[in-house]
UniProtKB/TrEMBL annotation:
One Gene Ontology molecular-function label: transmembrane transporter activity
PANTHER family for the chain: MFS TRANSPORTER, TRANSPORTER MFS SUPERFAMILY
Organism from which the protein derives: Nitratireductor pacificus pht-3B
A Gene Ontology cellular-component term: plasma membrane
The protein's name: Major facilitator superfamily protein
InterPro entries the record matches: MFS (IPR011701), MFS_dom (IPR020846), MFS_trans_sf (IPR036259), MFS_YcaD-like (IPR047200)
Keyword Cytoplasm: no
Pfam families attached to this UniProt entry: MFS_1
Segments traversing the membrane: 35-54, 66-85, 91-112, 124-144, 150-168, 189-208, 228-246, 258-277, 283-303, 315-337, 349-369
Top-rank lineage group of the source organism: Bacteria
Entry-linked Gene3D superfamilies: MFS general substrate transporter like domains
């Protein structure tokens, strides 16, 4: 299991590095913010396709061969970007990267899910979450060290993807049972929880814009490369710090109240960032930390609310549906945010974000008025989720003490 976690760490770091690096390098090459936003949209379109179709590949060739093929494609794509510095080529490569990374994460999480027992599943999930935080934040600081110019940065990306093959090749070669195909019934997921579905769309529209366009925002307000790395890391760390406190609170109260409070916090911090864009470095860091603390928690809170209304056999179906709704928003968010930034300036990124959260607040208030809350004894436990694959939901839910199926 340790080799698999090492491979996950390398991939998570490589994925975190790519998003920031490609945005900054694209800007240095003269690509417009809208073009860079389109690259982000292409990535999430590929990400969704990879999540949906990787189970078929795993059933056809197994985990090890699938991982090797996908890693080779991902590494080749990273090198293609430096060989062909062209917007159309980069958009195509980002689409391919989305397919590769989502498929690689699904493969690793399927493997971990098979290897973990109920006795140690919570520890495996905790370690996985820690690896995610350390890898993604640490990768931001690789950028000032290696620079954004020349061939080096892309060579490092290709090396990281290739090196992830080493621990996987040395891991348990039992080739576990591939995950079942994810049933995608969007109408049913919407019926189970319209609020969670809308919440995940809103999170996709906003958080993807921050992750993909945030580096351009930082550059536009005059931050150095190292300051941009700190700015992005502050938002990620904020989300990591606050997910569990907010989740624990939502286990004790009407979860929609916590979702409403969290959305208000995200909207206010986004408004503050749009008002004080670039005026004070320390204020920017504090505000983006608060923004991350609230905004990055909304997906897990929405998923927990949906699961409160779902039966045991619907958890993975709900996870697949919510990931689809998130990806719908994530395909659109970077493009819209980058277009607004190009025409109205850097403050437009967080003005757009706050407007989306304002609409989510209205939807939450409406849903609280038309549907009663789930009684405390019938609620599930909160789980902080990675938006990497529906398999992560299966990992998080298996072994938890849940209410009996059909109790609703």
């Amino acid at each position: 299991m340790i080799p698999l976690l090492v491979a996950a760490g390398i991939l998570l770091a490589g994925n975190g590095l790519q998003g920031t690096l490609i945005a900054l390098r694209g800007a240095a090459e003269g690509f417009s913010p809208t073009t860079i936003g389109l690259m982000g949209s292409a990535y999430f379109a590929g990400f969704l396709i990879g999540c949906l179709y990787i189970p078929r590949l795993l059933r056809a060739v197994g985990h090890i061969r699938a991982f090797a093929a996908l890693a080779a494609l991902g590494a080749a794509g990273a090198l293609l970007m430096v060989l062909f510095v062209d917007p159309v080529a980069w958009i195509a490569v980002r689409f391919l990267s989305g397919i590769c990374f989502s498929s690689l994460f699904t493969t690793i999480e399927s493997w971990l899910n098979s290897a973990a027992a109920n006795a140690n599943r919570a520890r495996v999930l905790a370690v996985y979450r820690i690896i995610d935080i350390v890898a993604v934040t640490g990768s931001q600081y690789m950028i000032p060290g290696i620079g954004i110019e020349g061939f080096t940065a892309f060579a490092v990306m290709a090396m990281m993807i290739t090196l992830s093959l080493v621990p996987v090749s040395m891991a348990d070669r039992s080739n576990p049972q591939p995950p079942a195909a994810f049933r995608l019934d969007l109408k049913e997921v919407w019926r189970i929880s319209p609020l969670a579905s809308i919440g995940c769309i809103a999170v996709g529209l906003t958080n993807s814009a921050f992750r993909m366009i945030g580096p351009i925002y930082g550059q536009s307000i005059g931050l150095s490369v190292s300051e941009i790395a700190t700015f992005m890391s502050a938002g990620i760390i904020g989300g990591a710090v606050m997910q569990y406190p907010l989740g624990a609170l939502s286990d004790r109260r009407d979860r929609r109240q916590v979702l409403l409070f969290t959305t208000i916090g995200a909207m206010i911090s986004a408004l503050a960032l749009s008002w004080f864009a670039g005026e004070d470095r320390n204020a920017n860091l504090l505000l983006v930390f608060l923004f991350g603390a609230f905004a990055m928690s909304l997906y897990s809170l929405s998923a927990a609310h949906a699961n409160d209304h779902a039966k045991r056999d619907e958890y993975v179906q709900v996870a697949a549906g919510l990931l689809f709704f998130y990806s719908m928003g994530a395909v659109t968010g970077p493009l819209v945010a980058s277009f607004l930034m190009q025409h109205f300036g850097p403050h437009a990124l967080f003005s757009y974000t706050s407007a989306i959260y304002a609409m989510l607040i209205l939807v939450t208030l409406y849903r609280m008025g038309v549907r009663p809350s789930v009684p405390a004894g019938q609620r599930g436990r909160f789980a902080a989720l990675l938006r990497t694959s529906p398999v992560f939901m299966r990992m998080a839910r298996r072994g938890r003490n849940k209410r009996p199926s059909g109790e609703l």
